[in-house]
Amino acid sequence: MRIAYSVETVRAAEAELMARLPEGALMQRAAAGLAAACAGLLGRVYGARVVLLVGSGDNGGDALYAGARLARRGAGVCAVLLAPDRAHQGGLAALLGAGGRVTDDPFEVLADADLVLDGVTGIGGHGGLRPDAVPVIRAARGSNAVVVAVDLPSGVEADTGEVRGEALHADATVTFGTYKPGLLIDPAKEYAGMVRLVGIGLEDHLPSVPDLEALQHADVARLLPVPTGESDKYRRGVVGVVAGSARYPGAAVLAVAGALRGGAGAVRYVGPAADGVIARFPEALVHGGPPAKAGRVQAWVVGPGLGDGIGVVAEVLDSDVPVLVDADGLRLLDAAAVRGRGAPTLLTPHAGEAAALLGVPREEVESARLASVRELASRYGATVLLKGSTTLVAAPDGGRSPVRVNPMGTPWLATAGSGDVLSGLAGSLLAAGLDARDAGSAAAYLHGLAARHAASEGGPITSYEVAEALRSAWGDVQA
Ligand SMILES: NC(=O)C1=CN([C@@H]2O[C@H](COP(=O)(O)OP(=O)(O)OC[C@H]3O[C@@H](n4cnc5c(N)ncnc54)[C@H](O)[C@@H]3O)[C@@H](O)[C@H]2O)[C@@H](O)CC1
Ligand SMILES: [K+]
Question: Where, by residue number, does AMP bind (predicted)?
Fold first, then answer.
């Protein structure tokens, strides 16, 4: 599990740790890790040309001390002070003492730098880069140098992953003590490049529950249902899929395809596309009538491809089993009906659907994904899986459990019908007994991994191929 903590929590942990250490020790640890990472990226430190972009806070201090270490190993290190009278004094003295220098002409030194260290802002930065920093970071990005962000790429919001205005596009980010949410969530994540975590002894001072967590193979493997000798199809769970319409029959097939590979013992399809479903999947149970008459299920999926036939959503929400609502099912969703349910509900909107549910423009959701998913979960009293470049899953517990962020996304999933496969898969995991947050996050993970498997065979992939690759993705996480 990769975990991230908010700035407030990081600062509290740092304060606790700093109180036990000699003055400046923590910054020295950070600088040592940073310099070592830079040395690794440079290959040869002696003779390398290193430029430090130094802001007015401790982030600049880290850059200056790391620069001093590189200068002592023979690098030519030059600092660009964006706020000369507020630059970290100890760090500056260390750099000058080690033979480094300060320049007034950033563009000249950036033109032939081998490595640029971005120490403009870290966790103390707010509101995007200031105008005077913008031409400098553009010149850094435009050079041939490797650009390394100190703690965070300057200009991104550490707590939310928002980017207001311009931010630095780093090749790599060396972050201290713990991941910050912005390193795991788009759009900021896109700016971080490869992220390396440097330990500074903070771990013991951080609370046991992080703000954000990202599953890895072993975590997903632990969540996935495994049939035992006692299992039969009913004990493994039956998932009901209410999807498709005369206009969108394919959505039913794709949702069932996902559901059949999600670990439930059986899939019951309810709706007008039964012939198409059976033609593709003879193992599916089908029913043309209303969901309430279809027979017992342990979880429902409702919504993909329903078109105008969304009357059925209220009927499914009335049931006493977990319900996943996706796509058309999210239109006209009655918040009171969802909040009043006794069993868990999982909503799986993309940014446009989330925006409609929240009554805000789509761009607002895209730029503030974390706030949006939390707000939706609390407003609907439901677990919410917000799909997109970084899929987030939040439970309706007011922040007591960490928001899950999916590290397995891939742009290959931006293809018609992939959401239908995901909803069937997640519903199947719900029927198999996973709680809504686990079902949503494990499904997003497997879905992304399956898309990568399918794409590894070369060329664009279809949603049906993603569903087919779920088996190999499942095997991969369990290996
Ligand atoms: N607190 C600690 O013990 C440690 C802190 N460390 C470093 O210290 C950083 C935090 O330091 P600070 O709290 O001084 O904060 P930062 O250095 O991240 O930034 C704060 C400074 O930047 C200015 N600023 C804020 N927004 C800006 C913007 N958009 N454009 C330009 N300037 C802006 C502020 O006026 C302030 O002077 C961490 O990210 C990390 O790099 C590390 O050395 C590890 C130890
Ligand atoms: K930075």
Answer: 387-391, 419
